[in-house]
Design brief:
alpha/beta, single chain, 34% helix, 373 residues, binds nicotinamide-adenine-dinucleotide, 2 domains, 13 helices, seven-stranded mixed β-sheet, 16% strand, 15 strands, Rossmann fold
Amino acid sequence: MVIGVLKEIKPNEYRVAAVPATVQEIVRHGHEVYVETGAGVGSGYSDEEYAAAGAKIAATAEEVWSKAQLYYKVKELFPQEFKWMNPDKILFTYIHSNAHREETDCLLSSGVSAVAYEDVQDRNGRFPLLRPMSELAGKGGFLAACYYMQAVNGGPGKLLANVAGVETPVITIIGCGNVGLGAAELAASFGNEVRILDVNIDAMLAAKKYLPGNVSFLVSNRANLEKCLRESDVLLNAILWPKDRKDHIVYRRDLGLMKKGAIVVDVACDDGGAIETCRSTTHDNPVYREEGVLHYCVDNIPSAFAQTASVTLANSTLPYLLQLADKGFKKAISENRYLRAGMTCWGGRLTLRETALKQGREWTDPEELVKGW
Ligand SMILES: NC(=O)c1ccc[n+]([C@@H]2O[C@H](COP(=O)([O-])OP(=O)(O)OC[C@H]3O[C@@H](n4cnc5c(N)ncnc54)[C@H](O)[C@@H]3O)[C@@H](O)[C@H]2O)c1
């Protein structure tokens, strides 16, 4: 199959879907890979490195779009890319169709076959192509706190680490999932006192087994939260807040409980979500203050660590990409129900229930669909 790796066009997106090491694997499976010139530059990979790995370098995006059968990308489609979708093409990328109505219109009207990274599942019902980005976002969120704590960056001048003779900083993390654990691992390795709040005791028990002793686990309730707010230098939110919830975990008035100079990092960055005062920000304008408290709520933290993100994302997507390329769309989707869970559409039919419900569209059950193939 001919695979096309494109340069992402979303502002501040530096990641690339395939890195030279994974291109080499794809080529070893007998496929042809076209990489748009400069596609890897934001992640630190040159055209020459891709060529050495066996890729053909395309001088323009048009060349990749027209030659490739399978488009291997990172971000969703933008309007200028819609015209390349048709029933002979496969799209494999983060699609987020539920959030992008126009993109969904294009996917359905074009008849393209599409699999969304974010919906591929593993046998435990988890999302293996979201996990690596969540871990990075958690770690990156903690590093942002380290940056904004510095006096030269307008902070109180605190080093978030264990320094002899100085009180150990306290980092409170709400949510013991992928983001929370990524943040906790890094914050703890710097010697901070780390507290994780969650409602899921099993998740905390599992994490306790491998995180060091300077991480404690607390049930997320009002009493524990208030104590943590009073004592913490950083409050890092790492929970996905249901869109239909109108309440919050941390209210505007709670910010008054926080220590002078303490900051909020909201990795989940849901506007008015678990933290009432959070609204998502970008790398161009990452922070703002509410009630005197600095908030960092960047919605695309992994892109700041584009090389690490590209390598871990490419490693994670490669086995699924190879199944699609080796077997073809129908066989790969029929044989692997975890990959099937990621199918957004085929032949103009929407197979992702969540998007159908959200956008009031007809839905085709993927289990029924594959029976007819
Ligand atoms: N900003 C970014 O760049 C970026 C990148 C990746 C992920 N994210 C976002 O980060 C969020 C977390 O992702 P994840 O992969 O860690 O999710 P996850 O599902 O692995 O973890 C969420 C955790 O929150 C806990 N939780 C749920 N309700 C709670 C409550 N009321 N109190 C305390 N804990 C509660 C759950 O038990 C779970 O352990 C998501 O919203 C995701 O979209 C942001």
